[in-house]
Amino acid sequence: MVSDRAAQPADPSDRLILTIPGLWNRGFEAWWLCRRLGAAAGCPSLVFRYRTVTADFDRSVAQLAETIERLPATPIDLVGHSLGGLLALAGMARLPAGSIRRAVLLGPPVRGSQAVRSALDGIPGGRWVIGRNANLLASGLSHTPPPGIETGVIAGSGGVGVGRVVTRFDGPNDGTIAVNETRLDGATDRLVLPVTHTGMLFSRPVVDAAVHFLNHGTFRDHRRRDAQSSSRSFSS
Question: Any idea what the Cα angle at residue 133 is, between residues 127 and 136, rounded to 5°?
């Protein structure tokens, strides 16, 4: 039952993590992130598979909701990367209350992506390469987390990525998405780590921070030696 999913597990391992990959990232890198999250959290983890380039966003949202409804009645946590973070936000809004416990969004372009806008304007065939979600990635998503779902955002400040080929960033960025493009109204907590947009998928500090949030509903008190001096929270 839905109410069972909303209950806080007595044991943090008594839950399931569903990861949602971003654009072009549904292969090995999606599996690797899912595997490491599950291992760090000590619970089952699954990858939500969808067509990141050719599928209509609304259809992908419906597919995500249908998938979650078919999962066992256990607390469900979401971890979405980039476009997958937008999909998580839209999916949470569609699902019945109590379907999702907590969510972590990695580099989500919730306020739109300057890099995508530049690619659409300046690269022949850019819209074809980015696919059916190009307009969404360019403009962002106005959704906020539904009441009762603690949602954390992790942004990157690594500053290296394909976005720098097509645009100039004015502030901290992960090479593809600017930190200020990940600002989500209604987020429970936020964290910036010195990683790139793709590097998030392979970063141990990102996995540790995400699992900490899924366990506690906050990034506060999360510490790791190799990230402590360079990570910082940003205010909304």
Answer: 105
CA pair distance 65, 61, nearest whole angstrom: 6
Q: Considering the chain, what percentage of its residues have pLDDT values greater than 70?
A: 78
How many residues belong to the chain? 236
Classify residue 217 as left (phi > 0), alpha (psi -120 to 50) or beta.
left
> Distance (Å, rounded) from C-alpha 232 to C-alpha 198?
19
Enter the DSSP assignment of 173: B
H or E stretch including 192?
Answer: strand 189-193
- How many other CB atoms are found less than 10 A from the CB of residue 230? 12
Q: Is the pTM of this model over 0.90?
A: no
CA-CA-CA-CA torsion sign (200, 27, 86, 76):
negative
Sheet holding 76-81, edge to edge: 45-47, 16-20, 76-81, 102-106, 150-156, 189-193
